[in-house]
Every structure is written in structure tokens, then in C-alpha cells.
Amino acid sequence: MTAFYLKLLITPALMLAISLAARRWGTAVGGLLSGLPITSALVMLFLSLEQGSAFALMAVPGALAGLAAIQATYLFYWWVTRHVSALPGCLAALVVYGAVAWLMSRLGVLTLSITVALLLVGLIIVFTSRQARTQAAACVPVPRWVIPMRMVTATLLLLAITASATWLGPVVSGLLAPIPVIAWPLAVFAHVQGGRGELTAIIRGNAIGAVGVVGFYLTLQHCIVQWGAVLSIAAAVVLAVVVTAMLARALARR
């Protein structure tokens, strides 16, 4: 019962903090923050506490497959919305997410998932580099109901995954862990209200953060059984933040 109340408290608080940061400092910062393994860390923490560290360990390959699918979705949406509006682009991108997630999970090769995810991250960074240099991201106003929607969606996702983990199994639970409940609505609303420049800032920031997410899951894979859930997840989050900050700083200097 304590874990249930922690989910209800921690998850919406984190979503609120990131959403307010994006509102205050712009979509570039929002993209970076939403790319960090916030939802993933919460899902993996509660999976470990409720199902055991071995279950969370088996969920890592699925999570990395899901991460590759997310980057494919962003890249596809960024490309297809050159030719179509946001709504059909969003629907088509969700189909791409489902197809890539299914394919990567069926293949079930950890190194392949990492390779594909990092390749897609590299493509996003390269394709968005020119626009990132020529247009600084602004603070895009969002409707008042958007932030509560993100908080509710993230909390419901966490509750759904952890409550059905035994039935879903570790692979599917891991696959659902990195679903971008913050970044995806942020990207779509930024696109609709601020145009492609704002969309580019979100997607680029999320891709940079994804490199840290890879480090997050690899740290869990090597440490969670030996160190336990809390310590290993805390270390993995710190590593993800450091890697993301270093990469963002290096790219900003170019």
C-alpha cells in the first residue's frame, strides 16, 4: 500500500517539475529533461520493489528495444510533418512506434537495440543541427490542461505497468517503460503552437537525453542484482544526467 501512495505522489510531482521547467526555460531545456529516464526510472524502481530485481533485469532488453522505437518515432514524425499536418503525422508516427517496437522486441538482441537507438539518435542530431544553430528555442505557451494531462497520464502509465507486470512479463513491461509520456505531448503541442523550430528543439533534446538513457539501462543490467534496486537506479540516473549534460554541452560548442 505504501508503494501505491508513493506512485501517486512521486510521478505527478516529477511530471509537474519538468513541465514547469519547459515552460520557464524553453522547449530546448524541456526536450533535454523529458529525454532523461524519469518515467523509466520510476517503472524500473517499482518493478524491482514489487517483482524483484531479477524481473527488472529481464525487462532491460525490452526497455532498450522500446527506446529504439521511440527514436524512430521522433525521426519519422519530424520528417513526415514536412509534408502533412500534425494530426495525420502523429497517427502515422504511432503506427511506426508500434511496428518498430514489435520488431525490436521480437528480435530480442540487446546489442542490436542499442546500435539502432544510437544510430537513430545520431541521425536526429545531424538532421536537426542546422536548425538548432539558426533558431533558438522559445518558451511556447501551452493550454492550462496540458500539464495536468501529462501528470495524470504518467501516473496512470506507471500504475498500469506495475499492476499488470506479472501478466505482461518482463519483456513487455520493459518495452512500455520508456514510453515518452512527457516528451511526446510536449513535442506535438510545441509543433502545433510554435512550428517546426520548436518541434526540432524538443526532438533534438530528447535524442541527446536518449544517450544517457542507454547508459541508465546498461548500468541497471550490470548492477541491479548486486547493488539492489534503490542504489543501482540512483547511480544509473546520475550517470544518465552526467552523460546528457556532457553531450549537450559538447554539441552546443560546435
Can you describe this structure?
The protein is mainly alpha-helical. It has 11 helices and no strands. It has one domain (2-12, 30-252). The chain has helices spanning 2-25, 27-35, 38-51, 53-80, 86-107, 110-134, 146-163, 165-176, 183-194, 196-227, 229-252. Helix 3 (38-51) runs parallel beside helix 7 (146-163). The longest helix has 32 residues, at 196-227. The chain is globular and about 45 Å long. The relative contact order is 0.20.
Short account of what is shown:
With 254 residues, this protein is mostly helical.
Oligomer: single chain
Order of helices and strands: HHHHHHHHHHH
Distance between the termini: 50 Å
Helix content: over 70%
Number of strands: 0
Q: Major sheet, described briefly? A: none
Q: β content, as a range?
A: under 5%
Low-confidence stretches: 134-138
Determine Rg (CA atoms, Å): 17 Å
Let me know the average pLDDT: 81
Q: Output the structural class.
A: mainly alpha
Q: Count the helices. How many?
A: 11
Summed up, the domain count is 1
